[in-house]
Amino acid sequence: MPFYLIQGRGMNPAQAGLLLTAQPVIMAIAAPLSGTLSDRFGSRRLGILGMSVLSGGLFLLSNIDAGTGLWFVAIGLAVAGFGTGTFISPNTSALMGSAPRTRQGVASGVLATARNFGMVLGIGLAGAIFTTHLAQNTANALY
């Protein structure tokens, strides 16, 4: 998303950063509420709901192009943030609850490692895909 906003839409980093805050702000609101509901009703339904909402937000973001309004991008980011915030707390609770008390430290470490690995891999792949796509479009424009 930063590549799209800065290189694709010509925004400066401050503007792009401000727009990108839609996701973590909504996530920060949804996560504690989801955690409370997860403690009360269980984690399975909220986890499914969170992943479904996140999928919807990512679907919205997959349909953007150079002419898409920034309000649509902000809504897509907010929906994705709500889905992520709704999923993370129940998921963590379920994982930690399923580990024996003597192995919860290991379970927490595995969860953190998997989460960080996924973020790093996602950023690397997104950068590679964006750069390849940009290079192909630049080469096609020259001919």
Task: Measure the end-to-end span.
Answer: 28 Å
Tell the overall outline: globular
Into which percent range does the helicity of residues fall?
A: over 70%
How many discrete structural domains?
A: 2
Low-confidence stretches: none
Task: Explain the overall architecture.
This protein is mainly alpha-helical. It has two domains: 98 residues; 44 residues. Helices cover 85% and strands 0% of the residues. It is globular, with a radius of gyration of 18 Å.
Q: How would you summarize what this structure contains?
A:
The protein is mainly α. The protein contains six helices and no strands. The longest helix is centred in the last third of the chain and has 39 residues, at 104-142.
Q: Which terms summarize this structure?
A:
143 residues, mainly alpha, 2 domains, 6 helices, globular
Indicate the topology:
Layout: H1 2-8, H2 13-20, H3 22-41, H4 44-62, H5 70-98, H6 104-142
Helix pairs in contact: 3-5, 4-5, 5-6
